[in-house]
UniProtKB/TrEMBL annotation:
CDD domains: PGRP. This is N-acetylmuramoyl-L-alanine amidase. Coiled coil: none annotated. Residues 27-180 form the N-acetylmuramoyl-L-alanine amidase domain. It comes from the Bacteria. Gene3D superfamilies: Peptidoglycan recognition protein-like (3.40.80.10).
Length: 196
C-alpha cells in the first residue's frame, strides 16, 4: 500500500532524476479528487495522445474534452523531451481496467492478458500522456523516450518499486493500443537499467 507522494516530493524526485519539467498553471491543485479517492498508488501508466503539436496537446491534457474533463494525466511528455505537469491527484487517464493486472502490478509479477474492465485505474496509477499520433509511424525522438524512462524511474525509485510497476494503457484496458511505436517490455528494460 503506497500513498501518493506529495506534489512537492513528486516535483523534487523528477528533477533529481534529470527530468526537464515545465509547470503548467496551478498543476498541484488541478485534479478530479471530488470524483473519488486517489491512492493507494501501485504503478505508472504510459499513454500516447493521438495528437500533433506540443502546445495544443498540453492544453488538451490539462483541460480535457467535453466528454472527458481534465486533467487527463499528471504530465505530458512532449517530443522535445520536456515533461509538462498539468495535474496532481486523481486524473482521467486509466479508466476501468483488469483487476488481475492490478494484482500482478502490486505483486510485481508478469502481467496477465487484460480481459475485463472492472477496476478503477484512475485511483491507483500515476499517468503520463506522450505526444504521438499513435499510428505506429510517428517517430519517438530519443529525447522523449529518455524522459519517459526517467519519469518512470523517478516514481519507482521513490516508492521502492521495480520496473514491473510500469505498464502501458494497452496492458490495462481491453481494446486500448497505447503506447504504439515501442514495446512496454523494452521500456521496462530501460527503467530497470536506470534503477540499477
Amino acid at each position: 500500500m503506497a500513498s501518493p507522494m506529495s506534489a512537492g516530493g513528486f516535483l523534487a524526485g523528477l528533477k533529481a532524476e534529470g527530468v526537464k519539467v515545465v509547470e503548467v498553471g496551478e498543476w498541484e491543485h488541478h485534479n478530479r479528487n471530488h470524483k473519488g479517492p486517489w491512492g493507494p498508488v501501485h504503478g505508472v501508466m504510459i499513454h500516447h495522445t493521438v495528437t500533433k503539436g506540443s502546445a495544443q496537446t498540453v492544453a488538451l491534457c490539462r483541460d480535457g474534452r467535453p466528454d472527458l474533463p481534465g486533467p487527463l494525466c499528471h504530465g505530458v511528455i512532449t517530443k522535445d523531451g520536456h515533461l509538462h505537469l498539468v495535474g496532481y491527484g486523481r486524473a482521467n487517464h486509466a479508466g476501468l481496467g483488469d483487476d488481475d493486472v492490478l494484482r500482478a502490478v502490486i505483486a510485481e509479477k508478469a502481467l496477465p492478458h487484460d480481459n475485463e474492465a472492472n477496476t478503477d485505474g484512475n485511483r491507483h496509477f500515476y499517468g503520463f500522456e506522450c505526444e504521438n499520433l499513435g499510428d505506429g509511424e510517428d517517430p519517438w525522438p530519443e529525447a522523449q523516450l529518455e524522459t519517459i524512462e526517467k519519469v518512470c524511474a523517478a516514481i519507482c525509485r521513490h516508492h521502492g518499486w521495480s520496473a514491473r510497476s510500469v505498464i502501458g494503457h494497452l496492458e490495462w484496458q481491453p481494446g486500448k493500443v497505447d503506447p504504439r511505436g515501442f514495446t512496454m517490455a523494452w521500456l521496462r528494460d530501460r527503467v530497470r537499467d536506470r534503477l540499477k
